[in-house]
Sequence to fold (187 residues):
Amino acid sequence: MNVIIFGPPGAGKGTQAINISKKFNLYQISTGDLLRDEVKNKTEIGKDIENIISKGDFATDEIVNELIKKAIFDKDKKNKLIFDGYPRSLSQAKNLELLMKDSNQKIDFIFFLNVSKETIISRIEKRKILEKRADDNLTTILKRYDTYMMTTKPVLDFYSKKPNFYEIDGSEKITEISSKIEQILSV
Fold:
């Protein structure tokens, strides 16, 4: 089973992806984690990523697609993937379809966590206290949210027409969201 979970920054994608990956024995493919690992390891691509993210922008499709490709073609992860925060753009969505086809896989479930800007601001404020992530600056998050909403509208349109697309109210409690997703995945 391969799953996509997407939504704006602060929507709870990571939390839900962790829950799903543990319950269904999937590998969480978080673009955020992949990008942060490159930055942490001070790779050449990591230096570019750090510069882009510090401005509140998203890493280029080219960078993200290359990191995603490695995960998709990892034989140990075949048909056990949960994409957390990918795709973020229509070109990434189309790239994912091609990569899945080339690796003889498909996406089985697509979840969109729909969350308001106000809920996200509240969550980021709480997360800053708990985790102190470098990318949790409120101004940066709001810029990322606005950028996300602009670039993701075509992705939402692209996936919402598919029979395996599910929109979930991301403002509900974590346990309620998890329960809804697990019910869908268990059918």
User: Anything to note?
Assistant: Residues 3-177 form a domain with the Rossmann fold fold (CATH 3.40.50.300). The chain has a mean pLDDT of 88. Strands lie at 3-6, 27-30, 81-84, 109-114, 165-169. The two ends are 12 Å apart (CA to CA).
